[in-house]
Amino acid sequence: MQLLSLWPQGALDTMPATLASEAAEVARAEHESFSYTVSHDLRAPLRVVEGFARILKEDYGRLLDRIGNDHLDRVMGAAARMNSMIDALLSLTRLSSQPLQHQPVPLSQLAELVIEDLRRSAPERQVSVHVQPDLLVQGDPTLLRMVLENLLGNAWKYSSKCAQAEIRFERQQQGGQLVYMIADNGAGFDMRFAERLFGVFQRLHSASDFQGTGVGLASVRRIVHRHGGEIWAEAEVGKGARFFFTLR
């Protein structure tokens, strides 16, 4: 079963009404089948691995040496990461099947709310954040908040090792169109691998350095495409990253 091409990006938003209705029914059925397969068939063996590893840890951990216990911890940690990846994959598939709303969305206000949540999650951090005021667009408020949560969350995460972290969210005029930019001065990445950036489960940093499922940016790209826009990034290792996106 193909994971990425079951529901073409933005297809249901541009088809004629009758074709879109038929396509929506097919997509809904395929989505339900795919979700069931992922939720039940993939999780079943994972639950067995996780369950027996936990039993071994609880019942026999005292009989194992430090290395043996470390092996069990690694097994349970990998099972937990796999569960998180399955959850993220299911969320990604839902992005293509749920109806798209069109209403005014105050991006600046949403960004401030996201930053407020990030500050609460790490009150010890001092981050300089600039959000351009009064940014208003037409789109789906729930999905566009997910875009900001992922992009601002990444800027927050990848600037965590900076002594003076800075994050900016603003709108620019490029080539006659409005472009929204989220920038940070964090870890950045090597542009030679930029084509992998928006792929599912593709990561440019190790999980030991920065945690994540590798699905966030794939979700962002899908949402932006459903809004008739594009997304791209520029970066330099050790000098931060800039993510740009447009909306129709």
Summary tags:
248 residues, five-stranded mixed beta sheet, alpha+beta, disordered N terminus, Heat Shock Protein 90, two-stranded antiparallel ribbon, Helix Hairpins, 6 helices, globular
- CATH-derived topology of the largest domain: Heat Shock Protein 90
CATH superfamily of the largest domain: Histidine kinase-like ATPase, C-terminal domain
Major sheet description: 5 strands, mixed
N- to C-terminal distance: 31 Å
Q: Order of strands side by side in the largest beta sheet?
A: 2-4-5-7-6
Helical fraction: 40-55%
Give the total of beta strands: 7
- Category by helix and strand content: alpha+beta
Using the alpha-carbon principal axes, give the shape: globular
Please give the CATH architecture of the largest domain: 2-Layer Sandwich
Query: Which segments are poorly predicted (pLDDT under 50) over 5 or more consecutive residues?
Result: 1-10
Rg (CA only): 21 Å
Q: Name the CATH class of the largest domain.
A: Alpha Beta
Task: Give the SSE order as H and E letters.
Answer: HHHEHEEHEEHEE
Mean pLDDT: 80
Strand content: 15-25%
Separate helix tally = 6
Total domain modules: 2
In a few lines, what is going on in this structure?
The protein has 248 residues and is α+β, with helices and mostly antiparallel strands. Helices cover 50% and strands 17% of the residues.
